[in-house]
Amino acid sequence: xxxxxxxxxxxxxxxxxxxxxxxxxxxxxxxxxxxxxxxxxxxxxxxxxxxxxxxxxxxxxxxxxxxxxxxxxxxxxxxxxxxxxxxxxxxxxxxxxxxxxxxxxxxxxxxxxxxxxxxxxxxxxxxxxxxxxxxxxxxxxxxxxxxxxxxxxxxxxxxxxxxxxxxxxxxxxxxxxxxxxxxxxxxxxxxxxxxxxxxxxxx
Length: 203
Known about the structure:
By secondary structure, this protein is mostly beta strands. It has a single domain (31-202), classed as Porin (Beta Barrel), CATH 2.40.160. The chain has one helix at 2-29; strands at 37-45, 57-58, 61-73, 76-97, 100-120, 130-147, 165-177, 182-189, 195-202. An 8-stranded antiparallel beta barrel has the order 1-3-4-5-6-7-8-9. It is elongated, with a radius of gyration of 26 Å.
């Protein structure tokens, strides 16, 4: 009788451990779920801009993303969403040429609008607050140029050829959730910047 009770207790304990492990694994795999809606706000550094290499001033590279989990894809979850990025660069220089004085005042504005496909895969780790992902973005980079320079008489204005166009880029990223709806995010890849850091909000 005692042996049967001990065997039953051992079996119950083993079942509990297995259930706990399975629940933990499931929780990790579900860091990002079908139906989840996430907004990301970020500030970026680095980037390839056609304006040149010397600027008098520039704004931070600002990015906004939206993503929704749509379906399982292999061992992960596929999310579809959008991207909006903005950055502005300015160059101002004063010149004295003989009796004439003039200044260059140029501004370049970069706006990227994109559609992203994101694959979330979390089976490789055991942290139920960590979400790792990678994906591709098809984006349109809109570049505008403003020339407010004051040129000497009969001096030709600067001409800038726009480099607006469509591009396909890739990225890798991670989110860490501090609470159910608030987390931090980091992404490496080409958008409005090479590296972006920010916050994530789960709707």
